[in-house]
Design a protein that fits this description.
With 496 residues, the chain is α/β, with parallel strands linked by helices. The chain is 46% helix and 17% strand. It has 22 helices and 16 strands. The longest helix has 20 residues. Bound molecules: pyridoxal-5'-phosphate.
């Protein structure tokens, strides 16, 4: 029996894993969730001896049951290869009293590579299985990192095209340069005059537009998504939590069955939701600590049970977390409501109409594994400095938000339980913020690539290929549009 997937907004809408991956978002606007969370059927003790690829297979076969063993192993082998600069794929680096799970060793040096390296393979396999003959158009909204990782994954993949919308004034210089220099005839990158929420809402509207879908189907196209609303993003993200547990076991930091805590710098709630799934598969995770930057809508939600996006959108030094509508929270709300699609749909309607909803006390009780924290810009910079001065290890700004939240709010009460902090980006991607955090007077005046060279001297790690590649690369995409021109831009790219 295959594990089926339901929409969070309509219990009747059931599809297989490969169909859910192909579609991205359900027709009713809901997100696909597995009808139950499968068990990890690998004994915990044996995780210590497993490679990343073996761990990936052990996790993914439980969720993607309509893929054959051979298909899944092919996808895994093609994804987690020398695109990553370490055979470990996701090494665990211990600094001070924390273990940083480095998720930035892929092609675009942010954690999005962990899932977006495999999504194109899962998607093209799904297209074959389901006899999809239309060209798949990946529509993506990005707060900076998903865009490049999705472009790198889908560039020149036959049978696909990819369109990325990013907030023109809301990403770091390196993030923008990475995207606008993307090669590949099937790629399209567009800046919008708005923030990430505008980009994400615009993409969701395009998905929901039945007339547009029909018109494009007639021209040979169908839409899918590379955002973490696609279950094909979430499942591969569960893997590295299981892998991290195996590393802690191997290093003798805990014995099989003992818990670890995880801290995740959060924006769209995809990464931490994957940790929640890992826990519900049976992985011993104690607390799931959700770390926000100054856009602390999730912190307030976990404190009060009220989700309220009616507030100022703050541009911070951790742009990939500058989000006020965290899409994947919908999946948690659905679980917490006892899989009540109608109740969830009502809350989501409130969110789109008034920007706000309140969950019941019973639902809050279902979310008690989560704890929230946030770091101000000042605290984030102070954390980069502290960790560097105490251990010589350099955190990027997003990871520093998580690290700050842990040290300032949770370290005391967590005692000796080992903590895994998701390290979501290479410091090279945010060199300006990182270096000014370390010494503003000295580095504040230098240009971006000079800062990268200085960072290399301090960190002693090689400058990643992803950075070298963009140093002199020509800009290939320079379209900038108003946020209400997204549909026209899509048609221009596909139909001209
Ligand atoms: C995307 C991203 C995040 C946020 O992850 P979500 O899954 O959206 O919560 C954090 N840090 C970095 C560097 C990212 O790219």
């Amino acid at each position: 029996m295959d594990l089926m997937y339901n929409s969070t907004r309509n219990a009747g809408n059931q599809v297989t894993a490969s169909q859910a991956i192909l579609k991205g978002l359900a027709d009713d606007g809901g997100l696909y969730v597995p009808e139950r969370i499968p068990e990890l059927d690998t004994p915990l003790a044996s995780l210590a001896g497993m490679s990343y690829q073996e761990t990936a297979y052990a996790v993914m076969k439980q969720f993607l049951t309509d893929y054959s063993e051979e298909e899944l192993k092919d996808c895994i082998r093609s994804a987690y290869d020398d695109k990553f600069d370490t055979e470990e794929i996701a090494p665990l680096h211990t600094a001070g009293d924390a273990h940083y799970l480095e998720l930035f060793h892929g092609a675009t040096i942010a954690f999005k590579d962990m899932a977006l390296s495999i999504l194109p393979y899962l998607m093209t396999t799904a297209a074959k299985k389901n006899h999809e003959t239309h060209e798949i158009v990946i529509l993506t909204a990005t707060s900076g990192d998903t865009g490049k990782a999705a472009l790198a994954g889908f560039a020149d993949v036959p049978g696909t095209r990819i369109i990325v919308f990013y907030p023109k004034h809301g990403v770091s210089p390196v993030q923008e340069k990475q995207m606008v220099t993307q090669k590949g005839a099937n790629t399209c990158v567009i800046g919008i005059l708005g923030n990430f929420d505008d980009a994400q809402s615009g993409v969701k509207r395009l998905f929901a537009d039945k007339t547009l879908a029909q018109e494009l189907r007639e021209q040979g196209f169908c839409f899918s998504s590379a955002n973490s609303i696609n279950i094909g993003r979430l499942v591969p993200q569960i893997v590295y939590y299981v892998y991290a547990y195996g590393r802690l076991l191997k290093d003798g930091r805990l014995s099989a069955g003992e818990p670890m805590n995880v801290v995740v710098p959060t924006g769209n709630f995809g990464n931490i939701l994957a940790a929640f799934y890992a826990k519900n598969m049976g992985l011993p995770i104690g607390k799931l600590i959700c770390a926000s930057n100054e856009n602390k809508v999730l912190f307030d939600f976990f404190e009060t049970g009220v989700y309220d996006r009616n507030r100022e959108f703050v541009l911070t030094s951790s742009p990939s977390m500058d989000i006020l509508i965290s899409s994947n929270l919908e999946r948690l709300i659905y679980h917490a409501s006892g899989r009540d699609a109608a109740a969830n749909a009502a809350l989501m309607r409130q969110l789109s109409e008034s920007g706000r909803y309140t969950v019941t006390e019973e639902m809050r009780a279902q979310m008690c594994d989560f704890a929230g924290g946030y770091a101000t810009e000042e605290q984030t910079f102070a954390e980069i400095r502290r960790v560097y001065e105490e251990s010589g290890y350099i955190l990027d700004t997003h990871t520093a938000v998580a690290s700050s939240v842990y040290h300032n709010r949770f370290a005391g009460e967590c005692g000796s339980v080992p903590v895994v902090i998701a390290s979501t980006a290479s410091p090279y991607k945010f060199a300006r913020s990182v270096m000014t955090a370390i010494d503003e007077e000295k580095y504040g005046v230098m240009d971006d690539f000079a800062l990268i060279d200085e960072l290399q001297k301090l960190a002693g790690t090689a400058v990643p290929r992803a950075i070298e590649e963009i140093r002199n690369a020509p800009v290939l995409h320079d379209t900038v549009i108003e946020k209400d021109e997204m549909e026209a831009a899509v048609k221009r790219f596909l139909l001209s």
